[in-house]
């Protein structure tokens, strides 16, 4: 399993616009081989920004790389950069190979 994350430093006054873009976009991730799950995370507030992270789970790193070269990727990102800046700089990518997973077998 492979987890791909992008960290975004969102300008405080642009949180709503940033969230609306993510909540309304057609990601087409469910069309791509190896896609397991996606989460958009809102994190801590800092002096000049709020930290967000996109968190995508893939069957393999190869599946993730194939997605970045796909028509679905191009379609999902076609309007990137067309709006006024909502973040402080570019997102910071982090990729992780999963070495252990523990799941709750008795959720309440």
DSSP strand tally: 4
Unreliable segments of 5+ consecutive residues:
none
CATH architecture annotation name: 2-Layer Sandwich
Radius of gyration: 15 Å
Number of helices: 3
> How many distinct domains?
1
Mean pLDDT: 91
CATH topology: Alpha-Beta Plaits
CATH class: Alpha Beta
Helix content estimate: 10-25%
**What's the order of the H and E elements?**
EHEEHHE
Strand order within the widest beta sheet: 2-3-1-4
Beta fraction: 25-35%
The helix/strand class is: alpha+beta
Terminal Cα separation, in Å?
26 Å
Largest sheet entry? 4 strands, antiparallel
Taken from the alpha-carbon principal axes, the silhouette is globular
Overview of this protein structure:
22% of the residues lie in helices and 34% in strands. With 108 residues, the protein is α+β, with helices and mostly antiparallel strands. The chain has a single domain, classed as Alpha-Beta Plaits (2-Layer Sandwich). It starts with a strand and ends in an 11-residue tail after the last strand.
Summarize this, please?
Helices cover 22% and strands 34% of the residues.
Fold blueprint:
Blueprint: E1 2-11, H1 15-24, E2 35-45, E3 49-58, H2 61-68, H3 71-76, E4 92-97
Antiparallel strand pairs: 1-3, 1-4, 2-3
